[in-house]
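Researcher: I'd like a candidate sequence for this fold, 169 residues long. If you have to choose between options at a position, lean toward the conservative one.
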């Protein structure tokens, strides 16, 4: 038994249009969006975790926790500013979602390990560990969201519309 593939001889085209705003401007709506609020929460958690960890004797585990929380704070704050001022939209050709996915995944693992180390230390280190575990969960959630958006072919900011395939004879 054989199967045959027939081709109508037509040409299939798919049109993708990306709409961006070429201006850099502050967007208050981003701060009130779910993504913006989640980023603000994680920025505050990172800073709080760092401040709490500063009260402990400086050991290797505390140093790693401080590195994790402070680097996460600065990177998240930078990304928040880039989104709030629509710089990400202006640079739409950069794979922002993939970069954010990698950052969130790596720092989620960093927070998990450093929070476990703080938890093992006991005493007041547990408070810092709790902030670290919450940050770990938020970064893990953001990693999943960014990966799903990247898989769907979305851009980080702005609009992209795709019209379906059309066959031209």
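Model: Candidate sequence:
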């Amino acid at each position: 038994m054989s199967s045959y593939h027939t081709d109508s001889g037509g040409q299939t085209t798919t049109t993708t249009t990306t709409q961006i705003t070429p201006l850099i401007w502050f967007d208050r709506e981003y701060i009130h969006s779910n993504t913006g609020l989640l980023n603000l929460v994680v920025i505050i958690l990172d800073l709080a975790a760092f401040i709490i960890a500063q009260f402990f004797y400086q050991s290797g585990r505390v140093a790693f926790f401080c590195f994790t929380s402070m680097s996460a704070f600065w990177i998240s704050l930078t990304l928040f500013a880039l989104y709030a001022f629509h710089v990400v939209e202006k640079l739409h050709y950069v794979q922002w979602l993939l970069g954010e996915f990698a950052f969130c995944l790596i720092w989620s693992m960093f927070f998990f390990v450093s929070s476990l180390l703080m938890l093992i230390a006991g005493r007041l280190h547990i408070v810092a560990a709790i902030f670290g575990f919450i940050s770990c969960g938020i970064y893990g959630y953001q990693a999943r969201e960014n990966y799903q958006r990247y898989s769907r072919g979305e851009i980080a900011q702005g609009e992209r519309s795709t019209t379906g395939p059309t066959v031209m004879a």
